[in-house]
Amino acid sequence: MKIKENINKYIFRGYDIRGVVPTDIDIDTAYTIGIAFGSKLHDMGKTKCVVGHDNRISSPDLHQALIQGLLESGVNIVDIGLTTTPMYYFACLDLKIDSGIMITASHNPKNENGFKFAFSNYSNAKGKEIEDFYNYIKQGKFYYANGTITKKSVKKDYFNALRNNINFGKRKVKVVLDPGNGTTAILLDDLFKTLDVSYTIINGVSDGTFPNHHPDPSIESNLEELKQVVVDTKADVGLAFDGDGDRVGIISNLGNFIPIDYYMIIIIRDIINKVKNKTFLYDVKCSKSLEDEIIKLGGTPYCYRTGNSYTKAKVAELDLAFGGELSGHVYFRDKFLGFDSGIYAGIRLLEILSNTNK
User: Given phi > 0 = left and psi -120 to 50 = alpha, else beta, which region is 259?
Assistant: First the structure.
């Protein structure tokens, strides 16, 4: 592996680094990003970071190259291996390491990959931070030392966090789960067998080629199979997750697609009288129905720009109990840790359904 001199500026996007493999991103790109990221941490007086990767076919090779670069920059790595993005967020919080890199292209096509990364404060780099990192890489003034690597599993503690303060009612909810062969497929059965629900999993084999449908639950056409199985099994609800597990999609018991702004209405109705701060954030793509319902319930609507890194940071900055965006990223801070987890978002809906006959 070698430092990539002509790294493509195009891959440095608004919220992450992302491109086609190997045209835009190859192992030399990952190696270079590793050395640069570690050098930047050194400049900031930091010595540790968390690293994980999703189940895309290209992810293991990029993961190894990134780690090699980080090690040569003198960073001490906690490697959590194959993981969902929410589990990576949890690992950073649980280990109290506020810097890290997650190798993922989220819901993008299978031939793409990328890097979500945080330099500090557990907050994904965005906008100017990403532009500045590109310029830092171009300067090529890297720091070299010998780092260490520790492999760590946070699965047990993450499951405990997902289940913490969840109170299922008397009604046993029947749910169909569709990870779309994405990374949540490695978790669903182990987790849901510990919950008081009846569940069926479809497309549940982890496969980074996504052979059954594109893993983007915000697009209704990707959920046609889930709709049919929900209706056929007379399930109460269907839950779908994207490739790296940070977004959720909802299908009703009648097989209808439920937009996330309608899901947010259900959540806000449930929590508004249980939280002190009654302001709720949503992005500009959400319908006016959400704003109207928040006002009707006695809350304060807060409309904000689209972009996961921006909306999550703003929800934390304003100390809000809940917020989200139409793409399926939602953030619970009433009795969860504030990062976007599609699985947790689904569990919160199951909790509500178990306590009502509606």
Answer: beta
